[in-house]
Amino acid sequence: MYFKGIEAGKVPYFPHADTIIYSISTAICFQAAVMEVQTLRPSYWKFLLRLTKGKFAVMNRKVLDVFGTGASKHFQDFIPRLDPRYTTVTPELPIEFS
């Protein structure tokens, strides 16, 4: 559409605009894959899983639920295996609020 707009004289030409448009489009799709998986087509979700070797499926989406997106809606049974060396709370212990 951008190049058709250039041909019609309605949109100015910017160097590397196609790369910028592609980058923004990819960022939006990846944001949807992380925050709102339920909005993706199943075929695109399978494509992303193949592309990332399954890494999108093992993300800890429960921490994203506070933003109200329902990120863990399709991953209710998933519990991440966290390395205690890199966490502030030991995964085996319950969190206590005081």
Q: Tell me the number of helical segments per DSSP (H or I, 4 or more residues long).
A: 3
Amount of beta strand: under 5%
Terminal CA distance reads 56 Å
Number of domains: 1
Low-pLDDT stretches: none
- The succession of helices and strands, N to C, reads HHH
Report the helical percentage: 25-40%
Query: What is the oligomer described by this structure?
Result: single chain
Q: Can you tell me the overall shape? A: elongated
User: What value does the Rg take, in angstroms?
Assistant: 20 Å
Structural class: mainly alpha
Main sheet record: none
Annotation, overall tally of beta strands: 0
Mean pLDDT: 84
Distinctive features:
Transmembrane protein 135, single chain, Tmem135, 0% strand, 98 residues, mainly alpha, 37% helix, 3 helices
Explain what you see.
- The chain is built from three helices and no strands.
- By secondary structure, it is mainly alpha-helical.
- It has one domain.
- The chain starts with a helix and ends in a 47-residue tail after the last helix.
Give the secondary structure arrangement, pairings included.
Layout: H1 2-8, H2 17-35, H3 42-51
Write a brief structural summary.
This is Transmembrane protein 135. InterPro entries: Tmem135. This protein is 37% helix and 0% strand.
